[in-house]
Amino acid sequence: MNFDRLRTVSQLADSGLQQEATLLSLIPEENGAFKRFVELVGTDVNFTEFKYRVNDLNDAKVLYSVEVSGPDDLQTCISRLRESGIVTENLTEDVTTQIHLRHMVGGTGAIQHERLYKVEIPERAGALDNFLNYISPRWTITMTHYRSDGGRMGQVLFGVQVQPDDLVSFEECIDGTGYAFTDMTDNTAFHILYGSPTSPTDND
Hints:
By secondary structure, the protein is an alpha+beta fold. It folds into two domains: 3-93, ACT domain (Alpha-Beta Plaits), CATH 3.30.70.260; 114-203, ACT domain (Alpha-Beta Plaits, 2-Layer Sandwich), CATH 3.30.70. Helices cover 34% and strands 28% of the residues. The longest helix is centred in the first third of the chain and has 14 residues, at 3-16.
């Protein structure tokens, strides 16, 4: 156990106890909209994390965490935002958001056939390089995130371009590394924050 691991445990514990909530809101990209959004969340609410990124000329994405006193307090906040026309999603219990996406900066891209995977890679010298040897240069890696928490296995999240008719070969290749992996392509938070304009079904 080290400080990095304690920080991750603390974040997940706060979420589990519903003392901290992670939310995603879409607000109009216009003068005064940001101030109005903060007021709707609550001037007495403590923001514990905040990421704001302009999506296009029409709206901006806000990924943020706030302290709450319980589920009722959280639902009141979400309802207030939605009733005011601000699309808001509760990502508090989405593990991928808590471990990876909340720490990343980016936006939607025009990457066709992009897929998202979570891979467990041993925390030892050469392990990541070994994994990449199986993937590159045949497939293009489009994004990646890794944060050590001091455990034996590191959780690596990465995006990759894979043509639909090449998917079986790609997953056989990952399986050959001996590392456990999970296809996270259908993760809602990923599509809202970083996904391509087309849906997975459009790409397949």
